[in-house]
Amino acid sequence: MDRHCHTSSIEVAVPATVAFDYMADGLAQGEWTFGSWDRRHLGENLFAGTSLFDGKETLVRIVPDPDMLIVHYYLGSDADNMVPRNMARIVPGSMIGKDDQCAIVSIISWRHAFMEDDRWHQLCQSHEVQMYIIKNRLEGVFGDT
Predict the structure, then answer these.
(1) pTM for the whole thing?
(2) CA-CA distance, 111 to 47, in Å (whole number)?
(3) Backbone angles phi, psi at 83, to 5 degrees
């Protein structure tokens, strides 16, 4: 296991722009992220949610880049001191030799020096599961499946 960065990816049967819009939706993120459940909008792309792991509140600032199909997620407990811990990258199907009615959704996470091995392992494993939630939400709501 990489001690510095973790990447999880899954193919979804929706166009890349649909997947991007979903991944950039701060309230919708509360449907699939275990670390910030029951999401509330606080304003200016700032959201708060509760961790299913420890019950603590986490703040998330979402910074979407629609031209690159990247969503940056800044995390922290203080809105003035958030760090870019995660990002989602959406890859259109045509970039991998398929049609554009599908896409790849990837989540990339960086480990901070203070994070213990058990917490890092938990984060990596939860992202693997979250990919299936994202896939099922996207295809169930926006897809033909």
Answers:
(1) 0.92
(2) 21
(3) -120, 145
pLDDT in tens, 61-94: 999 999 999 999 999 999 999 999 999 999 999 9
Type of residue at 120: W
Range 37-49 average pLDDT: 94
Looking at the DSSP bridge assignments, the partners of residue 64 are 71
pLDDT at res. 144: 60
Positive or negative torsion for Cα 23, 63, 113, 104: positive
CA–CA distance, 83 with 73 (Å, rounded to integer): 8
Beta-sheet strand order (sheet of 83-92): 5-12, 103-110, 83-92, 70-76, 57-65, 46-50, 37-43
Say if residue 42 is exposed, middle or buried (CB neighbours under 10 Å; 0-12, 13-18, 19+): middle
> How much is the pLDDT for 2?
78
What count of other Cβ atoms lies within 10 Å of the Cβ of residue 7? 12
> Could you give the domains of the chain?
5-141 (3.30.530.20)
